[in-house]
Amino acid sequence: MATVLYHLGRTAFRRRWWVALLWVAVLAVAGFAATRADSAPDEGFTTPGVESQKAFDLMDQRFPGAAADGASARIVFVAPRGERVTAAQNKAAVEQVVHEAEAGSQVATVVDPFRAEAVSQDATTAYATVTFTVKADDLTDASKTRLETAVEQARSQGLTVEVGGNALATQPGAGGSSEAIGIAIAAVVLLITFGSMAAAGLPLLTAVLGVGISMTAITALATTFGLSGTSGTLATMLGLACGIDYALFVVSRYREERAKGHGPRQAAGLATGTAGAAVVFAGLTVVIALAGLFVVGIPVLTTMGLAAAGAVLVGVLISLTLVPALLGFWPDAVLSRGARKGRQRGPRERKDNGGSRWARLVVRHPLPVLLLGVAGLGAIAVPMTQLQLGMPGDEAKSTSTTERRAYDDLAQGFGPGFNGPLTIVVDAKGADEPKAAVSTISRQIATTEGVVSVSPARFNQAGDTAVFSATPSTSPTDERTKELVKAIRGERAGIESRAGASFEVTGSTALNIDVAEKVQGALVPYLAVVVSLAIVLLLLVFRSLLIPLKAAGGFLLSVLAALGAVVAVFQQGHGAGLLGVEQTGPIMSMMPIFLVGIVFGLAMDYEVFLVSRVREAYVGGEQPDAAVVSGFRHSARVVVAAALIMTAVFSGFIGAGESMIKMIGFGLAVAVLFDAFVVRMAIVPAVLSLLGDRAWYLPRWLDRALPDIDVEGAKLGAEVAAEATGACDVGQVEAERPVPIR
Fold first, then answer.
1. Cβ of 442: how many Cβ atoms within 10 Å?
2. The whole model's pTM is what?
3. Which of 43, 174, 196, 268 has a Cα-to-Cα distance from 298 of 20 to 30 A?
4. CATH 1.20.1250.40 corresponds to the domain 1-36+180-344
5. Which is more confident, 6 or 26?
6. Under CATH, to which class is 65-165 assigned?
C-alpha cells in the first residue's frame, strides 16, 4: 500500500494543476446540484419494529387525513393571580382562541378545554389541543400566523398563554459562532505546531473544502437518501475535525522528509506513502464504524452515520491527493522559517523534544503511570453505571421558550404526567361491539396504578378503531413512567381477552421509551462488533497479537470515561450551567451508540499514527523502550496538536441550540481528550514498555497468512534507492536529493 500511495503522492505533486482543478470542479458540480435539488421531505422519526411505531402506522392507516405524526400545538391558558380561567371574561377569551384555531385550513381537530374537562382542579389552568393534518415542516405561514394571532389576542385580555408542541416550536440555534471559535483555535494550534502560516493554513483550507463538498453533496442527495439537517451537522463536525487532522499528518511527514534531505516531489511521495497509509486505515475505521450504525435499525441514525462517513471519506481522498498537489505549488512555504533560510538543524542533531522526554519518563515508571491512568479513567466512568436513556423534550429547553413555559404551567396545574400522556390505539375491527370493547379497555387501563385519568375515546369514521389518552402521575422522563408502560403492556393479554379487541400503547412518551430500549439492547452487540473490527484492522496494520488487544482496551476506557462525563453533566447536573444546560434529564437515547462508533474511529486514528512510528523504529533495529522514545519523538507533538484541534472543533458544537448536538459535541470533546492524552500518550507507552519484545509477537503461521500492508513504508527504501541511481523518470523538473530511508 505504501508504494502505491507513494506514487499517488508524486503524481499529485507533478500534476498539481489537474488535481486542484479536479477538486474545484467536484465542488462546483456538487454546489450546482445542491442549488437545483428539492428540499428533502420531512420523513419524521421512525423506529421500525417497536410497538409504538406499529401503533402510529395503524393510526395513519385508520385515520386518513389526520396523520399520527402531524403537527400539534397545546395551548396552555393560565388565569391572572386570584382569578379562575372559568370566569366569564377568561372563558370567552379561551373560546375565542378555540374558534379561531378551528377555522384554520390545515387543522384536523381542536379540543375545547371546557368540553373535554381540560381544566385544572383549582380552575387556574386550562389547555386546548390543536392537531394539524400535516407535519410541522409543511405548515404554511398562514396557518402559523392565524394561531399566533389568536394567542396574542388572549394575552391582550390578561391571560398568560403559552404554546407547547411542535407547530410553533422555537428553532434551535446553529451555534455557528462557536464553530468559528473552534476553527480559530485549530488555526492557532496549527500555527504553534508548525511555525508557518502556510503549514497552518493548508490543513484548514483542505478541510474546509472537503466540508464544502460534503455539505453540498448532502443537500443535493437529501431527497434521494432522506438526509436531515442533523445529518449535515454531524458530517460537518467529523469532516472538519478529521480533514484537518489527516492533512496535518501528511504535512508534518512532508516537513520531516524534507529535513532528511529529500527534494520536494519525493518528500511529498514519501509523506503520502507513509502518513497517507496511516490516514487510509484511520479513515477506514471511522467510515466503517459510522456506516455500521445501520445495524441499530433506526433510519435517522443510519442516515446520520452514512452522511458523516461520506464526509470523512472525502477528507481522506483530499489528504491523499489535494494536499500533495498544494505542496507542489508552495513546496518551501510549509517549512519552518529556519528551514526556509537554510538554518534547519538536521534530523540527527534533534535528539530530544517534549515527546521523547515524556516517553522516557513513562518507560522509566511504566507501572505507576499505567495504574494512575486506568484508575483515573475508571473513576470518571463511575457515573455511567447510573446511565438513564431517554429523549428529553420541552423540559430540556430554555425557559425563554414558550414550549418550556407551557410545559411548566401544565405540570403545575395538572401534574407532571400531563406533559407525556400515553396514547392507546384500540383495534376493534374484529370485535362484535367495538364501542363496548373500547370502553372495557379504557376502564381497565384507568384502574392501573400510576394512571390518573383517561380521556374519552375518539373513533375513526369506520368505527372500528379508537384512540384515547391515559395520563400518568409521573413526568415523561421519570423511571416510574417507564414502569407504567411496561405494566400496561404486561396486562394486555388479560385485558384483550375480556374486551375482544387488541390495543397498543404509543405516543411520544412510549416511543421514547421504546427507542431507548432498542438502542440499549443494540449497544453491547454493536460495541462487540466495533471492538472485534478494531482487533482485526490493527492486527493487519501492526502484525501483532497484543497491540490490538491493548488498543481495544484503551478504546473501551475512553468510551466509558466519556459516557461517565456525559452522565455527570447532562444527567446529574455537575457543571451543567457552564455549558448552558438549563435542565438535566436522561441521556439522549442515540448518544451512547454514536459515541461508541465515532470514538472508535478517532481512537484508532491516534493508535495508528502513534504506534506505527514506534513499530517503524522497532523494525529498524531499536530496543523496545528506545523504539517507544523514538516513536514519540517523531509523532507525539503532532498527535497532541491533532487532539487539541479535534477537541476545539467538537467543543464548538457545545454552543448549538439543539440538545443532541450539544451533548454529542461535549461527549466527543472529552473522549478525544481522554483517549489522546491519557490512553495514547500515557497508557500506551507504559504498556509497550512493560510488554517489551512481547508486544510485537506474532505466530509464524499467522504472519504468513496475513497480507503485508506495509503501513510504515519499509518497502519504500528500495524504491527510493532505485530512483537515487537514476531509475526515476527523467522528466522530473524539481531538484531532488534522494536519501534511502533508514
1. 20
2. 0.77
3. 174
4. no
5. 26
6. alpha beta
